[in-house]
Amino acid sequence: MFSDKEEFKQAFSQKLEAELSKTVKTATEVDAYRALGSLLREKIGKKWLATDQRYVQNKEKQVYYFSMEFLIGRLLGNNLLNMKMLGIVSEGLQDLGFDLNRVEEEESDAGLGNGGLGRLAACFLDSLASLGLAGHGYGIRYKYGMFDQQFIDGNQVELPDLWLSREFVWEIRRPEEAVEVRFRGHVSSSEDEEGGLHFDHHDYEQVQAIPYDVPVIGYNNETINTLRLWSVEANMDDTIRKAAKQEEFGNFLHHKRSLEEISEFLYPDDSHEEGKRLRLKQEYFLVSAGVQSAVRTFEQLGLPWTAFLEKVALHINDTHPAMVIPELMRILMDDKQMGWEEAWEITTASVSYTNHTTLSEALESWPVDMVRSLLPRIFMIIEEINERFCQSLWEQYPGEFDRIAELAIIADGQVKMAHLSIVGSHSINGVAKLHTEILKKREMKIFHDTFPDRFNNKTNGITHRRWLMHANNPLADLITDTIGEHWIDDPGRLTDLLAYQDDREVLERIQTIKQQNKEAFASWVYATKGITLDPQSIFDVHIKRLHGYKRQLLNALHIMHLYNRIKMDPSLDMTPRTFIFGAKAAQSYHYAKKIIKLINTIADVVNNDPVVSGKLKVVFLENYSVSLAERIIPAADVSEQISTASKEASGTGNMKLMMNGAVTLGTMDGANVEIHELVGSDNIYTFGLSSEEVLEYYRSGGYSAKQIYETDDIVRQTVDQLIHYSPFSKGDTEFQEIYDSLVHHNDEFFVLKDFRAYVAAQQQIDFDYRDKQVWNRKCLINIAHAGKFSSDRTIQEYASDIWRIGPGNMVK
Ligand code: 26V
User: Fold this and answer.
1) Residue 662 carries which DSSP code?
2) For a 10 Å CB count at each end of the chain, is N or C smaller?
3) Is the torsion defined by CA of 373, 375, 376, 378 positive or negative?
């Protein structure tokens, strides 16, 4: 790359002059970002091409990871890290008067995702490339990503995310790789001489899918994979011809606009399936463009179709891209003249599916009429899949009407995407052990009984390169100083740190780094929000999407309770606490928005009351995003993972925080169960109902929130403050809805039931934190076990068990 700093400085100055007509003296930070981007693209180009050529030459099996979301965040720092250029570039820039951190901030934070599912996809790409595996992402290049969040009067306000208004230096538009995607129209069939049926799609609307390729750079190796983001463009010839026929130019513009909507914005609701036509269009757009492109790449190998399943794996990230199944069937049968059986065998052997949620309101189903009119040929194929599937069930379970009706893909006028995904793929996985068990034993039991071999678990992971090496470089350096650098390539070896759990010096160094991170974070908060934080206090962090089941409300009620206690006894013996929140609520999720308002109100009361000021602070940071997470996580002491047990499929924030030495306060839910298993009860604070208990309450209806409210004075006092005159309600009805959800609607998420146990766990933390040696040891033990949660481990499992690809192409 660059042999030394001087070489880099020279190349950088030349870039500034040649491309931006600026000198080092006149260049701004934006100029520096653009020049650096351009310089790196040049360095990347050849390797990227070579990776592609290597894959073709070796005829390597390619994995295509289809996802409606890739929450990639900023790429500059990470790309420099993976290219092993971070040191040279940051020092070189410093010599020239630039601060790399400031230059990094000039890049938009690419928020092409909602939360966990989208960020997981981004971590997976990093691991695939870093392990030298041939895996690529297919997604949508949304013009507007996840909305920007602002608080006005404590309420969330959404602003459009114009991420492309700043230059995104990493993408390359590739019009020569465009494909066409067809909607609507009619399908006719005809018979050939041998009696074979042929289908012809006509009168359709056609759009162009234009790929924008983003390089995915492996860590310190020779691999650069591709994230291919598709953008829609109206097919001008087609559109003009149609408009001319109708002799209406107004129609032409209208029509063009309506087509271009497809890649306009990311749906910002990850909790409620709405059945919106535009969303269905987006899903098919991604699927059709991606499958056509994958098929085209396969055909360039010149192999027979029977080799497809050995050379291509199509993975669907949740059910959103489930139409990969009928789309591949369509291409194989209609374009490649294959018979049903052969096409079906190839399709099911190539497709695999990950389930990310058991929340029934988030499960996708589409009205039959909508699918039929928008995608007539795809609908026919889904119908046929359904018929053949029901037929085979009939043979296996004759007379069992109920079972067949429950398993059917099409029922009650709806197409059930989870059913389609299970029937049309060879592997279905959950994202943590507990989640997979719940799928197998409850949510998908009947499918598990039918296809037991298809179900498997792949516990989620996160990339330790972004979340430890880049976000918390001092900690990464300390680890390397202590155990050597092998953990970087083999994060499981972080367990070598366990040998130092009683080493005073190592423990003190961990504490010093945490303290410095907390100070850096506190200065940033002061500079941006004007709030002073005490870096000696416990930094208690709750960062994730705002959802009822994630129970930010439980945390909020606890803060109200603490506030009340201090007000009653201002000399209360407690360790000072800073509660830090970050969360976006879906625009239409009214209840979640009320909880945001409540937390902001609590912050306002607490932060302006001198009686509690030395003990309590509450900060709700606006616009939680990947880059904000990178700031908060290294400074966290406590990691709040307090979902209602059984509801959080895995969680991945829990892993990021643990890897940075925060101690989890959590329910036995999702991957918390596996964190507990690894670190042991002394190094995690668990509380509350178990998933079995929760599920049993739901089944029996035996829970009474009202009873707790009536019998527990502390619960009642705190909950009443939501509506009675109090510092928080100020006598108006702002929080009536929250009160009602707890007291009158039987507290769906068991907040009141778990309240006492949560308070007790928090008290234990307050106590344990006082002995720094004891606390630091917990931090070390958490860091040491976090290697299990590197996405490298997760991807190795997907590679060997699901995709059947090996590290044969590992080039170091
Ligand atoms: C659902 C929907 C449904 C309505 C349309 C838009 C939309 C967008 C996304 C989703 C999926 C939500 C599922 C999800 O993000 N699950 C999270 O996945 C994480 C990665 O596996 C996991 O750690 C979290 O526990 C899980 O909630």
Assistant:
1) P
2) C
3) negative
Strands 685-686 and 663-666: parallel
State which of 66, 67, 357 you would mutate to test the pocket of ligand 1, scoring each by most atoms of that ligand within 8 A of its C-beta. 357
Beta-sheet pairing, 616-621 with 205-217: unpaired
Tokens of 541: 């962090």
Residues with Cβ within 8 Å of 763's Cβ and at least 6 positions away in sequence, in order, are none
pLDDT value at residue 246 = 63
Tell me, yes or no, if 545 is annotated catalytic: yes
For the chain, which ranges sit under pLDDT 70? 237-249, 807-812
**How many other β-carbons are positioned within 10 Å of the β-carbon of residue 59?**
14
* CA angle centred on 524, ends 523 and 526, rounded to 5°: 65
From the CA of 111, how far away is ligand 1's center (Å)?
A: 15
Closest among 217, 224, 420, 455 to 325, alpha carbons compared: 420
Contact 264, 244 (CB under 8 A): no
The residue among 214, 200, 778, 292 whose CA lies nearest residue 538 is 778
656 is catalytic: yes
Judge whether 676 counts as a catalytic residue.
no
Task: Tokens for 14, please give them.
Answer: 């030349």
Q: Which residues are CB-neighbours of 250 under 8 A, at least 6 positions away?
A: none
Structural domains of the chain, with CATH = 298-458 (3.40.50.2000), 494-688+755-791 (3.40.50.2000)
pLDDT of residue 304: 97
216: which 2 tokens?
């995915």
Assign 538 to helix, strand or coil: strand
Provide the token pair at 259: 């087509």
Give yes or no for residue 649 CB within 6 A of ligand 1: yes
Query: Where are the alpha helices (H) located in 646-721, listed in sequence order?
Result: 653-659, 672-679, 691-700, 705-711, 713-720
Q: Taking a C-beta distance cutoff of 8 angstroms, is the pair 36, 89 a contact?
A: yes
DSSP summary character for residue 586: -
Determine whether 652 is an active site residue.
yes
Single pTM value for the model: 0.97
Q: Which residues pair with 343 in a beta bridge?
A: none
**Residue located nearest, by CA, to atom 8 of ligand 1:** 270
CA dihedral in degrees (368, 369, 372, 373; nearest 10)? -160
How many beta carbons lie within 10 A of that of residue 445, not counting itself? 12
Q: Is 117 in the pocket of ligand 1 (CB under 6 A)?
A: yes
The Cα 560–Cα 359 span in angstroms is 29
- What are residue 108's phi and psi, to 5 degrees? -65, 150
Measured CA to CA, the distance from residue 555 to residue 578 in angstroms comes to 12
Burial label for 613, CB within 10 Å (0-12, 13-18, 19+), is middle
pLDDT recorded at residue 241: 64
Radius of gyration of the chain (CA): 27
Per-position DSSP letters for 370-406, written without gaps between them: HHHHH-HHHHHHHHHHHHHHHHHHHHHSTT-HHHHHH
- pLDDT value of position 242: 65
Crossing angle between the packed helical segments 751-768 and 713-720, to the nearest 10 degrees: 100
Q: Which residues contact 251 (CB under 8 A, 6 or more apart)?
A: 243
In the block, tokens 């925080």 appear at 657
